[in-house]
Amino acid sequence: MAPRVIPVDPFDLVVFGATGDLAMRKIYPALYRRFVAGQMPPSARIIGAARADQSDAEFKDTVADHIRTALGPDVDKTELPGFLSTLAYVSVDANSDKGWPDLAAHLRADVTRCFYFSVAPSLFGPLAQNLHRWGLAGGDARVVVEKPFGHDLHSAKGLNRALAAHFDESQVYRIDHYLGKETVQNLMVIRFGNMLFEPLWNSQYVDHIQITVAESLTVAGRAAYYDGAGAMRDMVQNHLMQLLCLTAMEPPAKFEPQSVRDEKVKVIRALEPVQPHHIVRGQYEDGQGGGFRADVNNPKSHTESFVALKLSISNWRWAGTPFYLRTGKALSARASEIAVVFKDAPHSIFGPEAGRHANVLTIRLQPNEGITMGVTIKEPGPGGMRLMDVPLDMSFAKTLGPSSGSPTDAYERLIMDVIRGDQTLFMRADEVEAAWAWTDPIIAGWQARADVPKTYASGSSGPSDASLLMSRDGRAWRKITS
Ligand code: BG6
Fold it and tell me: Which of 41, 101, 246, 472 is the most core-located residue (most Cβ within 10 A)?
């Protein structure tokens, strides 16, 4: 099934941090693909802005190289020159006047204007201030900011204040790229577009929910950032929190920014503080003196590369249904899923020897996006009534055809949403702050107790204490498989 493409209006997109890793690996390849798809109009302009002095031609060459690296044989040579002709480069210093008049001269008055802050959070304030000072922030100009959005509640509030000083909240787009993933959006459609699931989506019928975001990659290459952040700040406070919100929230009145974000923030505010014995932190090691500590070049690091938590949501829908979350690096596979485990049937008419089986609805985020419903059937053949589980399996790639097998990258969707002015898939200021308000005491508790993460073998499914977290409750994690 070919995806439908609705072109966006002409725009000027300024990418601050134009020569950085994120811009090169994600932003330009995403824009290029939207250009090839016909969604980005040829009259759009992408203006790279960074401190370094370089010519337009040098900038274009670097972008072209990265697009080739990112997209490989996908790169259509006939389209690349057209895309590159939309690019320009301006040398701008966030902390001085250098380059701002030049940048202003590049911007057109009659098109949508967006500023992408692909820079360290410490530059958000100076950039916002300069945009205002040079008269570029007005109208419906949009500003896009990346995570990490602060490292605690205090710093996140500071960033929100720095942006709010010059931009209205309706102009600010805080990216969490998990919200741009195809299946994450499908989660909302599965819940609210079908009559089948929503009546069962509560503590009366759901035994528990597991959310897993497992990565096989290590932290090598991102040592300094990661050793200061850890899995709690890097993944749980944002990506896993968003998945939890979309799984647990009440139906919004409409699929529009304020309604959806109102419902998500209510979930975060209903989270109970987490008991220390409901959290497991882990750090990978390879058994030969290598592992996390070697990767971050810090032999005494107490930063976690794995977290598992048991959460409770105090509201009518979820009281009594635990949510188990886990995420980690250097695990056995790259596999992310949300598994809704339903309660057993109240009474088995088939007798104890037939066995009991719970239905599990699994929403696979990556890889192999799709949905599986575990259904209990009779084991075929003679020999009495024995029950077995079979998956009703819907792989999106298999069911919808090959084009859906490589869904639009999250960045492609999110950048186009910015241009369209749709904030639904972006985090609001109060949402980010609520997530930090919940996260901060957990991290403060670790620091106060000088908590040391449990070790786990690279390539395993995490520390054994994570299994205990489940087995104490008579439950088990689902296997991590890709
Ligand atoms: C990023 C984290 O936000 O998300 C990384 O900083 C992590 O540590 C990445 O690897 C995971 O994203 P994805 O899309 O590969 O699941």
Answer: 246
